[in-house]
Design brief:
The chain is mainly alpha-helical. It is 40% helix and 7% strand. It contains five helices and four strands. The strands form two sheets. The chain has a two-stranded antiparallel sheet with strand order 1-4. A two-stranded antiparallel sheet has the order 2-3. Helix 2 packs antiparallel against helix 4. It is globular and about 40 Å long. The protein starts with 8 loop residues before the first helix and ends in an 11-residue tail after the last helix.
């Protein structure tokens, strides 16, 4: 495995505000990685900033495949086991829908990572699953203008 000497995205974002160009570049790298993984039938199921590593050239690497699994690449890849971090969890996971589409759950987590890259804070913060779910389905989000300059 390649050594990611610049740590993880979570730690990096505690020190730095990303530019629009950085956000765009890193989002594309994340999308390419997940396009490949989903194309070969792998779902991550625990994407979060702590699981995105930065190489010496500040390229991204997806890490921690402990909850990953192979799924049917057909139209209905389904999963029943919930394994994720609440802040990055899709509404269907917090609501308790089973089975769920793990590809869609990965896509939701990518959206949360994008929001965090733009704002340096997660879109939904709370300690309780039901409170996070309520916020997910009832509020609108605003992206920081600072990130888009």
């Amino acid at each position: 495995m390649e050594y990611a000497e610049n740590g993880d995205l979570f730690t990096y974002l505690q020190k730095m505000q990303l530019t629009e160009a950085q956000i765009r570049s890193w989002l594309l790298q994340i999308l390419w990685a997940f396009s490949y993984m989903h194309g070969v039938g792998v779902v991550h199921r625990d994407l979060k900033c702590e699981n995105i590593l930065l190489t010496s050239r500040y390229n991204l690497r997806i890490a921690d495949f402990g909850f990953a699994r192979f799924v049917d690449r057909g139209r209905n890849p389904e999963a029943n086991t919930v394994c994720c971090t609440m802040t990055y969890s899709a509404p269907e996971l917090l609501y308790g829908k089973r089975p769920y589409n793990p590809v869609a759950v990965d896509v939701w987590a990518i959206g949360v990572v994008l929001f965090i890259m733009c704002n340096n804070v997660p879109p939904f913060r709370n300690r309780h699953r039901k409170d996070i779910h309520r916020k997910q389905v009832s509020c609108s989000l605003v992206v920081s203008r600072n990130a888009l300059q």
